[in-house]
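Exercise 3.2. Students should predict the tertiary structure of the chain below and write it as C-alpha cells, then compare their answer with the key that follows.

Predict this chain's 3D structure.
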Amino acid sequence: MELRELRYFRTVVECGSFSKAAVKLMVAQPSLSRQIRALEHELGLPLLRRSARGVSPTDAGRVLLERTLRLEEDVDGIRRSFATMASQVTGRLRVAVQAPVSFVLLPDLVRNYRARYPNVMLELVEGFSGDVVEKLLAGVIDVAIVDIPSTPIAELNATPLWVETFSLFGWTGAPAIQPDRRTPVTLAEIAELPLIAASARHAIRYLVEAAFERRSLKFQPVIEANGALMIFELVRAGLGYAVMPASVFRPHYAFCELRSAEIETVIRRTISITARSSVAEDRAISSFREMALELLPELTKSTRFGPVALYAIAQDKGQ
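Answer key:
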C-alpha cells in the first residue's frame, strides 16, 4: 500500500466519479481503476459502490477514507516540522577570532547573529592566527575569522572577507614619521629603525618578514610582543616602531596619539572566515558566514577598521 494509492482513493470518493478524479489527478481512467481494484484486493474488502450515478464509499471505504485523511494530515505535519527544522539554526557554535580583529568586528557580528539565531549558543575564543588555525584543524573550534594561511590548507574552507594594507606606526614626535613627510617610507629605511614586532606565531610577522626578504633585507626587531595592546603601548611610549595594519591599533582609545606613514612596498593581508571543509556547510557555520558577509559592507565603513577594502572589490582593482 502506498500513499499515492490512498490519495487516488480519496480523490475518487471526493469527486464521486472515476472520470472526474482521473482529470483532477491527471492520470488515465483505466490506470486509476486498476489502482483502486489493487487496493481493494490488498485490503480484502470492496471500498466503493459503483453505479450509473457514480461511486460512493462502502462502510469499509468510509473507514479507509477517515484513516487516509488522518494519515495525510500526519504526513503534512511531518513535512512542516522538517521544513521548520531545516530553516532553524540551533546548537553550539565555537567561534575563534584573531586578535585584534575581535575588537573591530565581533560586537556587531555577535549582536546581529544572536538577534537572528537566538537558539544558537555562541562560544567565543580569541587568539593569534597560528593558534587559531591549529584549533580549527583539531576540531576544537568550528569557525574562525583569521588571516588566510600563506599556504592553502586542503582541510580548510576559507571565504575571503577584506584586504588590509600595512603602515609604519610610531609615537608622537617619532623622527621617521614627520607630519610634513610627503613620500612613502621604504623598507630599507624601516630596516634601520628599532622595530617592535608580533611573535612568530602571528601571520602579521610572516607577511612583514616575507616583504623584507623579497627586498633582500633583514627583519630584526628589537622587541617581540605577544599582544596588539602590548605593541601599541610600547610604540606609544616611544620604544620603537611597528609595521601593522591600522585595524590592529585603531580600536585603542589613544590611537590618535600615534603617527603613521605609508610604506612604499605595499604589504597586505587578507582576513577570511574559515572552517574545516568537512563541516563548512553545517547550518550554524554557514549561517555565521552568511551573516558576516551580509554585515561586512556596512561594518567596514566604521572608523574602527581603518583603510580596508572588501575582498571582491580589491580583486576587481587588482590589489
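Discussion points: The CA atoms of residues 91 and 236 lie 43 Å apart. The radius of gyration is 33 Å.
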